[in-house]
Amino acid sequence: MDLLNQTVKKIGKLDDEIMEKTRKRVDNLIKPIGSLGKLEDIVVKLSGITKKPFPKVDNKAVIVFAADHGVYEEGVAAYPQEVTVIQTLNFVKGVTGVCALAKQARADVIPVDIGIKEDVKEEGIINRKIKYGTDNMAKGPAMSREEAIKSIEVGIEIAEKEIKKGRNLLATGEMGICNTTPSSAIVSVIGGYAPIEVTGKGANYPEDKLLHKASVIKRAIEINKPDPEDGIDILSKVGGLEIGGMAGVMLAGAANRVPVVVDGFISTAAALIAYKIEPKVKDYLIPSHFSAEKGAIKGSKLLGLRPMLDMDMRLGEGSGAVLAFNIVEAAVYMNNEMITFEEAGINV
Ligand SMILES: Cc1cc2ncn([C@H]3O[C@H](COP(=O)(O)O)[C@@H](O)[C@H]3O)c2cc1C
Ligand SMILES: O=C(O)c1cccnc1
């Protein structure tokens, strides 16, 4: 708890003064004001986060947390649970969706076992297993409050290690068969939505069984009664270990003034947990894409952040976040490479 408390305490406000200066310069770049749209907003935000007029994003990594879920036994996922471990091993081989897109974006993929249900001994996978998967949230809490805090602290520790190594742009990713179920539960609790309104097909769960998936989520919420105002309570009762890890990365990014790109639906659920713990964290987050998962738009609205890409993506793993790295980097190039009207000798 000490690490979490210290981290939360360190989270400050964006630097308004530098943001104003950056906005002024961006407005004066040789283009009609506002014509580079969201690229302009991104670089202004980056300057407020980093306190630098010319922020850099040349050292990028996506931290991918893998964990299993006890609620799998309720029949809420289409794919076998073994895919979690197989895919985590594939992160090391560099052959998954996020790996391919990270290669293109010149970013590193950092896989972390935070709760896979079996032992995974493989060089390249950071072993920070808290337990062998969560407990079945439809029968009781997914984990204890202590374990929930630990999962966030694992995320903080790993992010801080990367930041110390010089990372200046982080992203969150995850792998955990069945994790759209706890993610929908989180959005339902925080937004006050009926589970069916925010329950989608995840990794191709059959449409005609969605009522069952939503009813399991409903039962989990009724049994556990998570407090909608207490992020740690929600995480422990209806969350997941990888969701806690990702929330930790976001809090650590904010505490150390490093931007964090938030991937799709599951990362957004983690962002909501971080936001409930410390609302200021939101200013340090850059959402990547509108996930096609039902509930994703509601989740983003609750967070109050609008993703930049609309690509019909619904993979998770951090795939959309590393794709968005390219756009964030483009915003930095705009800021670095363009001249102002003044520098061009034009008076307007
Ligand atoms: C091969 C494969 C690769 C994946 N990579 C990410 N996910 C995504 O799907 C899972 C969530 O969907 P659900 O809740 O329906 O199980 C998570 O592991 C998420 O990262 C995958 C799923 C599969 C099957
Ligand atoms: O957007 C996501 O994160 C997502 C959506 C469906 C399945 N897995 C992940």
Automatic annotation (TrEMBL):
One of its GO terms (molecular function) is nicotinate-nucleotide-dimethylbenzimidazole phosphoribosyltransferase activity. Catalyzes the synthesis of alpha-ribazole-5'-phosphate from nicotinate mononucleotide (NAMN) and 5,6-dimethylbenzimidazole (DMB). InterPro entries: Nict_dMeBzImd_PRibTrfase (IPR003200), Nict_dMeBzImd_PRibTrfase_bact (IPR017846), Nict_dMeBzImd_PRibTrfase_N (IPR023195), Nict_dMeBzImd_PRibTrfase_sf (IPR036087). It catalyses: 5,6-dimethylbenzimidazole + nicotinate beta-D-ribonucleotide = alpha-ribazole 5'-phosphate + nicotinate + H(+). It holds the Pfam family DBI_PRT. It comes from the Bacteria. The active site is at E317 (proton acceptor). Its EC number is 2.4.2.21. The keyword Membrane does not apply. NCBIfam families: cobT_DBIPRT (TIGR03160), PRK00105.1 (NF000996). CDD domains: DMB-PRT_CobT (cd02439). It comes from Thermohalobacter berrensis. SUPFAM superfamilies: Nicotinate mononucleotide:5,6-dimethylbenzimidazole phosphoribosyltransferase (CobT). Pathway: Nucleoside biosynthesis; alpha-ribazole biosynthesis; alpha-ribazole from 5,6-dimethylbenzimidazole: step 1/2. GO terms for biological process: cobalamin biosynthetic process. Keywords: Cobalamin biosynthesis, Glycosyltransferase, Transferase. This is Nicotinate-nucleotide--dimethylbenzimidazole phosphoribosyltransferase. PANTHER family: NICOTINATE-NUCLEOTIDE--DIMETHYLBENZIMIDAZOLE PHOSPHORIBOSYLTRANSFERASE. Belongs to the CobT family.
